[in-house]
Design brief:
44% of the residues lie in helices and 17% in strands. The chain is of the alpha/beta class. Among the domains are: 185-356, Valyl/Leucyl/Isoleucyl-tRNA synthetase, editing domain (Isoleucyl-tRNA Synthetase, domain 2); 559-709, Isoleucyl-tRNA Synthetase, Domain 1 (Orthogonal Bundle), CATH 1.10.730; 723-813; 817-892, Helix Hairpins (Orthogonal Bundle). The strands form ten sheets. A four-stranded antiparallel beta sheet has the order 6-5-14-16. Strands 10-11-9-12 form a four-stranded mixed beta sheet, covered by helices on one side. The longest helix is centred in the C-terminal third of the chain and has 31 residues, at 854-884. The protein starts with 15 loop residues before the first helix and ends in an 8-residue tail after the last helix. The structure holds one RNA strand.
RNA sequence: AGGCACGUAGCUCAGGGGGAGAGCGCUACCUUGACGCGGUAGAAGUCGGCGGUUCGAAACCGCCCGUGCCUACCA
């Protein structure tokens, strides 16, 4: 490899894997528990082992990597803790499906064998997502990688479970829960997704006992009538007041059930009489408890009707619905069927319709835990960014309900509870007990259920650091510095980590929570496999390069707004990578003979270009640093993008070319080379957190000190380096060049044609400056001869433009279009008049003069004066052209 | 039903009480010794609508329309 010569275009493929391996080999990602540096830590939101990288992961991990690389370069002792999640239901489903392809049923295999198969599966495929994270450039400390089912993390789970149980914050009880008949497990209320669907509202007549009359109830789920144990009406409802205490005969089953009064009933809905099915409806369950109603389960774990359903026994719940309706219709007791839109709950894993079912489950009593977690955010011990999410957090935490943590699956942390076969005692213990703590019998049976995956995820910030052991890692890195995550798991995960962290560590799990957006498709829709609108990040990385992809994500990551990813933007940033590459290629080619600078250089002795770029770079450092510290990734990305492309490349490199190519001033050339390398080096450092690969590749080829840009110092803003004079002077130079280029463009003068330009500056200091910087102007505006004239020497036949203090004249050659110049000037004059009008309107308003701040008034006045001058000069020029003759005549 | 965002150039999006911005796209010209994944110039927007606050609103407030999301739940 020739260290100095770069290929013409940047090729990410030749670069990315090489540097990632380099960083890994050198151990640059590793955290150090004995470091004296200030710690800065992040725990990764652990992706599911079944997963592969999607856009959400890509965004989430790119942002974390930007932060951790930034902090690492700033000199913090950084830890980015990686790992994966065992994802109980999802993983079990995946492995079950695979087994069924082999014709194996998990029940036939047995629990132990099945779990073995899951571990095998994990060994084989579980590493996919970590490989992809590495491709993304994630600088995690992989030597510490954890998995929620690891021995250590499992110990943490048991410890937490036992303690919460002993403190009566975990209990087992018979409650109504959300049941997925396909996954055959209970779900927490967060794992149910509600979707509006069109259904039917059936009006059913229940005959009153002893008489011809009946009561009408309405339901969307007629099959549940088999489990009805009451009809409820509102106590103040005149229509039904007299019926309270009477009984109805439940059709089909001919069971007698009471009419009860409960304020829950909405008199305006349907008939105002509510059928009560305590075993299959959340609200009915509450009513059932309050009134001591019988609870009859008519639907089983598979979604089939139980023995209690009488003639419908064994039937699927939806088949049963049809049959019940048919039977009511036949009896003439189906009074009415309305179309009805309502929300139906679905399993978040398999989309099966949820069946609320009475079931014996384990719960966490969340209220006491939530209070402390709410307080932590109120106190500002944890800050949620952007703050709008704090409201959502409080809202949910204040209305939190007990958390159903038991799952009837096999893959997961088995609940550390045992039952005595003899006396039915429940024993909760860290280790497997040998005998019953009450009766001493040795026949014990472990609880079959496992814990909700989120239970172990809730411990992630401290379990990964070694808890319950008192480790150095915990001392150094807990609380973590920031958690970066999407709002979709704010409740699932963030809130629960807060509760557990505060409870078991006595301190919040993270100082900041940065909530980023969701990545959507170009039409703003969620990306999903079923919609077929997913963009695969791995393919994007291969096509455009990882750096371009990462930069796109950062540039899109404005707070509080979702990201609609567009490939055009990614392509744009691939061009940016190429731009950097070529700027570096140029720089390297001119640095070959750089003699090095051994002495201090006085800033004030430098050329304008050098002073200007140093000042602008310093400012860019300030902007990017501030942006990253406040998680304004898009603003940071924009600042460095603008600096590199539009200041460093467009202006600085062009300005210094004559010096670099010329041989007449070796001293000036050496100084310029020095500034060039310093600024390029600095810009690469600032860019590194966003684009780690290309910056490392280039930096390693530049003259440098240190082993890698990855561990180099992030540039620091220095207020003393601000060079106001250079900025002002450069502004004059730039505006003059723009003015000349504008005429060239508008007048259709060929870009390569060298022009004769006259400048008129009435103020001597402006003229002196222009004179001083004439090489910049002649070079960048491609000028043949540049002369300075006085107002008496204005040429008649010249294209002209007016800047603030400078008038530009370009003599018109025979082949130039007079008419074009006239139109151009007229357009300018019109613009000026429009602005004058606005300024006049303001200045003639007394209230503006008296109430607006003086500086604003002054500004408008100054603007008006400038506009007037401009107007006069433009009109003058226009007049001169018109004097020459017919603008559309022969000259045109 | 309640809540929260968002509506700015053809597209994707920044910005945010006193001069409407970027990227892509578009038009014209250009093999200028880093880059055509480039350069230079240009066209393009009643900043969703209507009111209000203010000397001044695209920005702040209210209402409306549109879009998206979240939460809750209606048997």
């Amino acid at each position: 490899m020739d260290a100095k010569i770069l290929s013409k275009a940047y090729d990410p493929r030749a670069v990315e894997d090489k540097w990632y391996a380099f960083w890994m080999e050198r151990g640059y990602f590793k955290a150090d528990t004995h470091s004296t540096k200030i710690p800065y830590s992040i725990v990764i939101p652990p992706p599911n082992i079944t997963g592969s990288l999607h856009m959400g992961h890509a965004l989430n991990n790119t942002l974390q990597d930007i932060v951790i690389r930034f902090k690492r370069m700033q000199g913090f002792n950084t830890l980015w803790m990686p790992g994966t999640d065992h994802a109980g239901i999802a993983t079990q489903n995946v492995v079950e499906k695979k087994l069924s392809e082999e014709g194996i049923d998990r029940h036939g295999l047995g629990r132990e064998k099945f779990i073995e198969r899951v571990w095998q599966w994990k060994e084989q495929y579980g590493g996919v997502i970590t490989k992809q994270l590495k491709k993304l450039g994630a600088s995690c400390d992989w030597s510490r990688e954890r998995f929620t089912m690891d021995e250590g993390l499992s110990e943490a789970v048991r410890e937490v479970f036992v303690r919460l149980y002993q403190e009566d914050l975990i209990y087992k009880g018979n409650y109504i829960i959300n049941w997925c008949p396909r996954c055959r497990t209970a779900l927490s209320e967060l794992e149910v997704e509600y979707e509006e669907e069109s259904g039917k509202l059936y009006h059913l007549a229940y005959p009153l006992k002893g008489g011809e009359r009946s009561v009408t109830v309405v339901t969307t789920r007629p099959e549940t009538m088999l489990g009805d144990t009451a009809v409820a009406v509102h106590p103040q409802d005149d229509r039904y007041h007299k019926l309270i205490g009477e009984r109805v005969i439940l059709p089909v089953l001919h069971r007698e059930i009471p009419i009860i009064a409960d304020e829950y009933v909405d008199t305006d809905f349907g008939s105002g009489a509510l059928k009560v099915t305590p075993a299959h409806d959340v609200n009915d369950f509450e009513i059932g408890l309050a009134h001591g109603l019988e609870m009859v389960k008519v639907i089983d774990e598979d979604g089939k009707m139980t023995r209690e359903a009488g003639p419908y026994r064994g039937m699927d719940r939806f088949e049963c619905r049809k049959r019940v309706i048919g039977d009511f219709e036949r009896d003439g007791t189906l009074l009415k069927v309305d179309s009805y839109r309502h929300n139906v709950g679905h399993c978040y894993r398999c989309k099966t319709i949820i069946e609320p079912t009475l079931s014996k489950q384990w719960f966490v009593r969340t209220k006491p835990l939530a209070e402390a977690a709410i307080q932590a955010v109120k106190d500002g011990r944890t800050k949620i960014v952007p703050p709008v999410w704090e409201k959502t957090y409080f809202e949910w935490m204040n209305n939190i309900r007990d958390w159903c943590i038991s799952r009837q699956i096999w893959w997961g942390h088995r609940i550390p509870a045992w039952y005595c076969e003899e006396c039915d005692e429940t024993i909760v213990s860290r280790e497997e007990p040998h005998s019953c703590t009450r009766c001493g019998k040795r026949e014990l049976r472990q609880e079959a259920d496992v814990l909700d995956t989120w239970f172990s995820s809730a411990l992630w910030p401290f379990s990964t650091l070694g808890w319950p052991e008192e480790t150095e890692e915990l001392k150094v890195f807990y609380p973590t510095s920031v958690l970066v995550t999407g709002f979709d798991i704010l409740f699932f995960w963030v809130a629960r980590m807060m509760m557990m962290g505060v409870r078991f560590m006595g301190n919040v799990p993270f100082r900041d929570v940065y909530i980023h957006a969701l990545v959507r498709d170009i039409q703003g829709r969620k990306m999903s496999k079923s919609r077929g609108n997913v963009i695969d990040p791995v393919m994007v990385m291969e096509e455009y390069g990882t750096d371009a992809f990462r930069f796109t994500l950062a540039a899109f990551a404005a707070q509080g707004r979702d990201i609609c990813l567009s490939e055009e933007r990614i392509e744009g940033y691939r061009h940016f990578a190429n731009k950097i590459w070529n700027a570096s290629r140029f720089s390297l080619s001119t640095l070959a003979d750089f003699p090095g600078i051994t002495h201090e250089i006085d800033l004030h002795e430098m050329s304008l270009a050098n002073r200007w770029i140093l000042s602008r770079f310093n400012e860019t450092v300030r902007e990017v640093t501030a942006a990253l510290e406040e998680y304004r990734f898009n603003e940071g990305a924009q600042a460095i993008y603008h600096f590199i492309w539009h200041e460093f490349c467009d202006w600085f490199l062009e300005l210094i070319k004559p010096v670099l190519y010329g041989k007449d001033d070796p001293q000036e050339r050496a100084v310029t080379q020095y500034v060039l390398i310093r600024v390029l080096d600095g810009a690469l450092r600032v860019l590194h957190p966003f684009m780690p690969f290309i910056t490392e590749e280039i930096w390693q080829r530049l003259p440098h000190e240190g082993k890698a840009i990855m561990i180099a110092d992030f540039p620091q803003y220095n207020a003393g380096l601000k060079d106001e004079e250079a900025l002002v002077d450069m502004d004059l130079v730039m505006r003059t060049i723009w003015g000349i280029r504008n005429i060239r463009g508008e007048m259709d003068i060929a870009p390569h044609k060298r022009l004769d330009v006259s400048l008129l500056a009435e103020r001597a200091e402006v003229r002196d400056r222009l004179e001083q910087y004439r090489t910049y102007i002649t070079h960048l505006a491609r000028i043949n001869s540049l002369s300075f004239i006085t107002s008496g020497e204005k040429p008649r036949d010249a294209a002209t433009t007016v800047l603030g203090d400078v008038e530009i004249f370009i003599p018109m050659a025979k082949d130039m279009h007079l008419g074009g110049e006239v139109r151009r000037l007229e357009k300018e004059v019109q613009k000026v008049h429009k602005e004058l009008e606005i300024a006049d309107r303001k200045l003639s308003n007394d209230e503006f003069i008296s109430k607006a701040p003086a500086e604003i008034v002054e500004k408008v006045k100054a603007k008006k004066d400038a506009l007037l001058i401009r107007d006069r000069k433009l009109t003058e020029s226009l007049g001169k052209i018109l004097e020459i003759g017919d603008p559309d005549g022969p000259g045109a």
